Amino acid sequence: MSTPEPTIFERIVARDIPADIVFENDDIIAFRDIAPKAPVHLLVVPKTSEFANIAELANGDPDLLAEIVAVADKLATEQSNGEYRLIFNSGESAGQTVFHVHAHVLSGSLDESSLGR
Ligand code: AMP
Residue 30 maps to which CATH number? Predict the structure, then answer.
């Protein structure tokens, strides 16, 4: 059986490619999105590549999903005013480009463009 190509996020976890990392523990890494859509735009990513999207994660490891939400909330408080939009794109037609589940944390003054409309 062939091994699938690592996603860009697995490569960031492995320090294979650089990222502006703002948080890390045993389960989760968070870093700044390379193409920010808001004054603060972070990605909160589980280190495991087992789950492609939020439904898979919610079914497979709800505690890890709760941990992602807690990290997002903490980082939005540390890096902004504690108010934020949490987005999980699920599926290509919904804008998902990296099929390794991740939360977008958008904070700061948000305009219509950051709503993805
Ligand atoms: P999505 O489109 O929901 O799958 O989100 C993927 C996000 O990853 C996009 O917002 C990209 O800008 C971001 N991204 C892609 N490559 C990198 C990278 N090397 N470092 C930081 N963010 C990245």
Answer: 3.30.428.10
